[in-house]
Design brief:
By secondary structure, the protein is an alpha/beta fold. The protein is built from 20 helices and 16 strands. The strands form four sheets. A five-stranded parallel β-sheet has the order 3-2-1-4-16. It has a five-stranded parallel β-sheet with strand order 6-14-7-8-9. Strands 10, 11, 12 and 13 form a four-stranded antiparallel β-sheet that branches. Helix 7 crosses helix 10 and helix 15 crosses helix 16. The longest helix has 19 residues. It is globular, with a radius of gyration of 24 Å. Bound molecules: flavin-adenine dinucleotide.
Length: 495
């Protein structure tokens, strides 16, 4: 598909909105459905392959209004049922359609703390937008109201307007809460608990707060300046952030309660433990976990050649193993780090790929090559112990497995060799094990996820948990929802 320039999209929206505003009668449902879906303006694929700036450029005000006008304002609001934090979607779209963008943002912020982040990275196509009546009438989720894009627009506008209202902090209670980790679950807890007047100290293992939003999701999908603004807002509220502080090493969790006087602790340490394939050759030079590769590239700015000192393995032909968001991020990062060929190898078909449809489309536009129904059975090295190829097997789909997806079945004797110089393993992450291992009495599942009750409370009194450490690798919005629930319980406890 040829690239439509942002100027052409802006011009078309301008004309369309002009024509609608000339009408005197309110729009009928039929007229709303007839408004064309507003495409997201993007950088040209040929240009963006060589930079790390954001791919999606954001709507113009006209596009944001038009897209919002497509909403039918359904009374039963099925979209809200699809939103994990139950944002009043028709409410914010109504305000945006009228051009009241700050009002729209205020509606979203009642339920979501990070709309500029969620507008960018939430999998809306399987959440709110999947249930949209407009999409259903037009028989395609691609034609649903682009709720996330409007959310992003109003959140960016609010941030850039300088009119964001700082939350009111209640008088100091003298109570102290430790928040471990600084991803979306922890950011939500810190804000919600601080608002009640409790002192909050956040402990982060890395040198920068933000969790996966800064170390995992690349700049070209989520600019780090946006995350930093959210962190700045926490600091402005009086949250103290201690970086380079690993709970379980620098200080044990129980010492926070027994010696440091914390009245409650929240654990939001995420799922940062990479899974490997456990195949021959996985220890060769040139094989990486996607998390490590992305952390070097993002957090440690390895893409900033000439200025950053971070070593990163740069190879001509790179194989990415996996089909989720992490795999797409690794593949697209490899493109930007100068790989001539990037091969995504995935055992199932595109339909079963867990990555967002938009990320797969963007990866393809940027030249990433997809090999479906294929898997790597062995990594092969040269005489120096460096990767020189992968041995692959072909697969076919069998019966559905426990997840409902059709099980990939290998085709015996289908082995063949693909020449590559680097392999990035992106087949999933497990929960960080350090805190459960160093905290007596903290119960986990057999997969290492911390067990909590319906209020977010763990097996230790006064200790709460949420986000990926509880759910396993999940999503930003679910982590925020968990954080909100745990914060409500902590606030109740400290009343
Ligand atoms: C590459 C990648 C891409 C993704 N893309 C998307 C996407 O497009 N959309 C989406 O919704 N979700 C996406 N996700 C998932 C999403 O980012 C996570 O579900 C979410 O960040 C989980 O939030 P969290 O707060 O539980 O933990 P995290 O964001 O993982 O943050 C945990 C923090 O805790 C810190 N920590 C760990 N152990 C300790 C310790 N012992 N002491 C102190 N600090 C500690 C870590 O350093 C980290 O900063 C992606 C994940 C990855 C890895």
């Amino acid at each position: 598909m040829s690239h439509i320039t942002p100027e052409a999209l802006a011009e078309a929206a301008h004309r369309e909105l002009d024509a609608i505003l000339k009408k005197t009668a309110p729009l009928t449902p039929k007229e709303r459905i007839a408004i064309p879906v507003q495409d997201m303006p993007t950088q040209d694929p040929e240009v963006r392959r060589k930079n790390v700036q954001e791919v999606a450029l954001g709507y113009t005000p006209e596009q944001a209004r038009l897209e919002s006008m497509r909403c039918l304002q359904c009374r039963n609001a099925p979209c809200v049922q699809g939103c994990p934090v139950r944002i009043d979607i028709p409410g914010f779209l109504k305000a945006a359609a009228a051009g009241d963008f700050l009002g729209a943002c205020a509606v979203i912020k009642k339920n979501s703390l990070l709309p500029a982040v969620c507008g960018r990275v939430c999998p809306q196509e399987v959440q709110c937008q999947e249930h949209c009546t407009v999409g259903k009438s037009l028989k395609s989720v691609d034609k649903a109201v682009s709720i996330g894009r409007v959310e992003r627009y109003v959140a960016d506008l609010e941030r850039d307007s300088g009119k964001a209202v700082s939350p009111v902090i209640k008088p100091a209670t003298g109570k102290k809460v430790a928040v471990i980790g600084s991803g979306p679950a922890s950011v939500t807890v810190a804000a919600d608990v601080r608002r009640e007047g409790h002192q909050v100290v956040m402990f982060e293992a890395f040198h920068k707060p933000g969790g996966v939003l800064v170390y995992g999701i690349p700049e070209f999908r989520l600019p780090k300046a946006i995350v930093q603004k959210e962190i700045d807002a926490l600091l402005a509220m009086g949250v103290e952030i201690k970086t380079n502080f690993v709970i379980g090493r620098t200080r044990k969790l129980k010492a926070l309660i027994e010696e440091d006087g914390f009245d409650a602790v929240f654990i939001g340490t995420g799922a940062g433990l990479p899974k490997f394939m456990n195949i021959e050759g996985e220890n060769l030079v040139g094989v990486f976990a996607a998390n490590e590769y992305l952390t070097r590239a993002n957090l440690m700015k390895a893409y900033d050649f000439g200025r950053a000192d971070t070593p990163i393995y740069r190879a001509g032909r790179v194989a990415i193993l996996g089909g989720g968001n992490v795999a797409m991020d690794a593949a697209r990062t490899a493109v930007r780090l100068g790989a001539a060929e990037v091969h995504v190898i995935y055992r199932r078909t595109e339909v079963e790929m867990p990555a967002r449809v938009e990320e797969i489309a963007h990866a393809k536009e940027e030249g990433v090559i997809f090999h479906l129904l294929e898997n790597v059975s062995r990594v092969m090295g040269d005489e120096n112990g460096c990767v020189k190829a992968v041995e692959c097997l072909r697969y076919e789909l069998g019966e559905p497995d426990a997840s409902g997806r059709r099980r990939p079945v290998e085709i015996k004797g289908s082995e063949f060799i693909r020449d590559v110089e680097a392999v990035i393993v992106a087949i999933g992450n497990d929960s960080n094990p350090l805190i459960p291992r160093t905290t007596e009495g903290l119960k986990t599942t057999k997969w290492g996820n911390i067990i909590v009750d319906e209020t977010g409370k763990t097996s230790i009194d006064g200790v709460y948990a949420g986000g990926d450490i509880v759910l396993g690798a999940a999503t930003v919005i679910l982590a925020m929802g968990e954080g909100r629930r745990a914060a409500a319980s902590i606030n109740e406890r400290l009343k």
